[in-house]
Design goal:
CATH architecture: 2-Layer Sandwich
Domain Dinitrogenase iron-molybdenum cofactor biosynthesis: 13-107
Pfam families: Nitro_FeMo-Co
Strand content: 15-25%
Organism: Archaeoglobus sulfaticallidus PM70-1
Distance between the termini: 33 Å
Number of helices: 4
Helix content: 10-25%
Largest sheet: 6 strands, mixed
Strand order of the largest sheet: 3-2-1-4-5-6
CATH superfamily: Dinitrogenase iron-molybdenum cofactor biosynthesis domain
Biased composition (Gly residues): 126-141
Structural class: alpha/beta
CATH topology: Nucleotidyltransferase, domain 5
Mean pLDDT: 86
Number of strands: 6
Protein name: Dinitrogenase iron-molybdenum cofactor biosynthesis domain-containing protein
Low-confidence stretches: 121-141
Amino acid sequence: MKIAATTSKGGLEDNVTPQFGRTEKFTIVDFDKEMKEIKAVEVVDNKAKSQPSGAGIAASQLIIDLGVEILLTGKIGPKAMKVLKSAGVKVYNAEGMNVKYAVDAFTKGELEEIKTGSMGPKQGKAGRGGRGGKGRSGGWN
């Protein structure tokens, strides 16, 4: 089974980042369900992160092309979630966890599945705490 985690540097010792579409790298873990062990680890650059728009959809396609079945992340947009769901990829919240720990927690059924995408921070003035924002730092929808 292939498990992907959103990471900044990549690797089992890195932490799962909160963002999906604009994450720096994906750490791909090939997990053997029968032996209950990690067989291989690969770090893949997220080429979608620098796109002006549609980064989540492009990152979703990359995940699908890599044959990933499980995605460990923090937050994910609704369009990216729709693409992943249509391909049968399940998404779990592991934000801030060490990748190795998050994979272990997933295999033990300890992670919460994310079933719908969120819009993330408000854009424009509202996202910077301007009129219509939530407090000084904006807010999550």
